[in-house]
Amino acid sequence: MLIKENRLQKRMNFKLQWYERLPSTNVFLKERLVLEPELESGTVIVAREQTAGKGRRDREWISSANENLTFSLLYKPDSIPWSIPSVSMAVAIAVAELLSLEGIEADLKWPNDVLVRGKKICGILSEGASEGIIIGIGLNVNMDETEQIDQPATSMLIETGERRDVDALLKKLLIHLEIWLTQWQQGGFPQVRKVWEANVPNLGKMVSVRDGDSQRQGILFGFGDSGELLLEEEGGVSAIWAGDVSTS
Ligand code: BTN
């Protein structure tokens, strides 16, 4: 049930719709788009609670009700000249920028994680839809130490000891998203590469990249124009398009 709706007058003309409970804001937005292809760019679906939150690679995204931000933004740029996965990298920069203003220094982890002290604080799931891009963001805001997550995780509360108003935080985050999505639309990943690389702590270091059963080791050389990871192995530098990176 839709519980609240309002518009933020900005260039992206965000239209926010809050729901008490949804299985997944990404799935809901995808289904809405099928029925309403005219749904405007800037539509933001926010769920106070997700009962079947989706992560990357069919993982679950666990987030307890009312404590954190779980939302999906519909983004319909005039054209999509850049590789869709790299949009998540621009989004991660926007989140890290907000966190920094909130007194939390975050690192970026390829392809689209935001970490603090090696623990995940935000996950991003961008999915192409025929009518645009669905950008799903889960940001741990008021999660406390007792919450059970299947991987090392943290929250803004854990990092600063302060609880935050989730709705007010969303509005702040949208400002940063607008800035970085505009950058991405203008020049794709190359336009945001400098900031991305400045916030990736394991650049130039030995890493392992695991993709299913395969695992490769090498030096994290950099990132290509589509946001692909460049791994330097004995035979040279190669591009990797998917996987989980860890410091080896
Ligand atoms: C990941 O790190 O694996 C990505 C997690 C993305 C979670 C967000 S929460 C809002 C949106 N709805 C979903 O079902 N998933 C994304």
List bound small molecules: biotin
Task: Give the CATH architecture of the largest domain.
Answer: 2-Layer Sandwich
How many domains would you count in the coordinates?
A: 2
Q: How many DSSP-defined strands?
A: 13
> Topology as H/E string?
EEHEEHEEEEHHEEEEE
What distance separates the N and C termini? 47 Å
SSE-based structural type: alpha+beta
Q: Sheet with the most strands?
A: 8 strands, mixed
Shape: globular
Annotation field: number of helices: 4
CATH third-level topology of the largest domain: BirA Bifunctional Protein, domain 2
CATH top-level class of the largest domain: Alpha Beta
Order of strands side by side in the largest beta sheet?
A: 1-2-3-4-8-7-6-5
Helix content percent band: 25-40%
* Radius of gyration, in angstroms, nearest whole number: 18 Å
What is the CATH homologous superfamily assignment of the largest domain? Bira Bifunctional Protein, Domain 2
